[in-house]
Amino acid sequence: MAKGGKILVAEDDAEARELLMLSLADGDYDLLQAADGIEALHLLRTEHPDLLITDIVMPRMDGYELVRKLRQDESMSSTPVIFCSASYHEREVREMARSLGVRSTLSKPYDLEIVRETVNAALATKPPAATGGPPALIEDGGAQERLSALVTFSRRVFGQTDPAVILESTCDAARDILLAQVAQLVIVSDDGSRQVTTSSGLSGEEMERLLSSRMYRDMVQSLESGGSALYPMSPDESVANDGAPQRGDFVSMLGVPIASVTKSYGYLCVLNRIGLPGFTEEDLAVARAIAAQVAVAYENALQHQALQDEIDRRAEMESEIRRLNQDLEKRVAERTAELEIANRELEAFSYSVAHDLRAPLRLIHAHVQMLREHKGPPGAREPTIHMEQIQRGAKEMSALIDGLLALSRVSHVEMRREPCSLDNLVKHAVDRVSQEAQGREIEWRLHPLPAASCDPELMQQVFANLIGNAVKYSRPRAKPVIEIGSGVVSESDTGTTAAPGERYIYVRDNGVGFDMRYARKLFGVFQRLHRQDEFEGTGIGLATVSRIVERHGGTIWAEASPGRGAEFRFTLRGMD
To answer: In degrees to the nearest 10, what's the CA dihedral of 410, 412, 416, 420?
Structure first.
C-alpha cells in the first residue's frame, strides 16, 4: 500500500477528475476514481480509502448525499472529506461542509499547489463532528461569483447554433449554478408535443417517482400557464402518485418559463436544493436570468437552423437547376449534332437526286426510246438487250431507294441499349457473309472483343456492312485475310476525334485499299472511291455505319493505302 494513503476522487467531469488525479500523481498515494456518487459509495464500502475528494453536483447521487450516507455508516464515518465546487458556491459549500463534519473545500478551477496542501492537511487531521441537520441559509451566497458564472454560461450558449446542445448545456449549467439535484428543461411545440432534456443526480426510480408526484404536476401546470413556481416543500408532502405512501425525499422545487419577447417555448425547473431546505428568491432570480438567456439563444439557434435549411434548400435548387441546364445543353448539343447530320444527309440526298438517281432513269429513258425507234425484224436480239438494260437500271434505282430508306430508318428508329456480346454479333455476320462468298478461301482472324452496351440490331448492321465491304474489296486477292479485333487509341492516331486511351473495334482486310486523300468522302451518302463496274454497291453502307456509331456516342475512321488493304475503326460509349 502507498505510504501516503489511499485517496478516492469522485468527480463526474472527466477533465476535472483527470486534473485532480494528475495533481496527486507525484505523491505516494494509492488513487481511486469514481464518476458519480453511486460508484463512489461502492468504492468507499469496498476499498475503505483514507480520504474522499468529492464534487457536489454529480449524476445519480450528489456529493452532499454521498457524504451524508458515509457519516451514517459507522465503519467509515470518520473518513476525512474534501468538498469541491465552483468558486461561486464557495460560501454555501463551506456552510454545507460544516453541517456534515467536512473541514476542507476546494474551488474550481483547481490550483494544483492548493490541492496538494489541502490533501496533506486533510490526511493529517480527523474530521470534526457533524453539526447535524441542513446548513443555515447564507445571506451572501457569492452574488458576484454567480454573476460571473451567468456571464460564462451566456457566452457558451450564445456561441452555439445547435438547439439540442443549447438545451443540454442549459440543464447542466442550471443544476450546477443553482446546486440542484435535478434540472429539467421542457420545450413545448406548437402541436403540444414535448421535448424534455434532463440533468439529474437521481436514479431512474427516483426520477419516475418525482415526475409522477402531485406537486410536480401542479408546478408544471403553473409553468405552462406562463407563471413561475417556487415550492419549499415540507418533508411530509407526498411526491408519489396520489394515494401512495408518502416520502420526504424531495423537499423543494423551482420553475420558470422560457419565453422570448415574441414566443413562449417551454419551461425550466430545478428540484431539490443540495444541502439547503429550499430554493431562495435569489435562486429564483438566477433561474429567471438563465431562462431569459436560453430563450434568446434557443430562438437564435432555431432561426440560424431555419436559415441554414433555407440556404441548403436553395443550394440544392441551384444544383438541380445547374444539372437541368447541363442536361438541356447536352440535349441541345445532341439535337444540334443530329440536325447537322440530317442537313448533311439532306444535301447528299439532293445531290443523289440530281445525279445518282437520275443516271438509272436516263438509262431507262434511252433504251425505251431505242425500243420505240427500233425497226428491225421480229425476234431480233437488239430489243432484248434494251430490255435487259432497262431492268438493270430499275434494279439500281430500287437499290438506291432501299439504301436511302435504310439510312433514314437507322437515323430515327428508337434505340434499345442492352448489354451485348460483340463476339456473337461478329460471328453471326461472318457466318452470313461466308455463305454469300462460297467458293472463296478467306482467312478469318477473329480476336476476343469487349462487351458493350448497345442496340444489338443496329450493331449487327455495322458488322454486316464492314465485314461485307472487307470481303468485297479483298476479292482480287488470291488469299484474302480479314481480321477483327480491338485496340486502344494512341497519341499518334491523328485521323480521329477519339481520346487517347479509348478502346476501339477494328475490321481489317488486305484488299485493294484506297487513297487516304479521299478518306473524308467515305462516310457520306452515295460517296464511292471505286467505279461501279469494279465493285458493286450503292455508296450508302458506310454512311449507315457512321450514323449508327454516332448514335451510340462513338466515332468511326479509316486507315488505308492503295493496294495494301484498309482498316476501319470505331468506338462506342459504354464499351468495357
So the answer is: 20
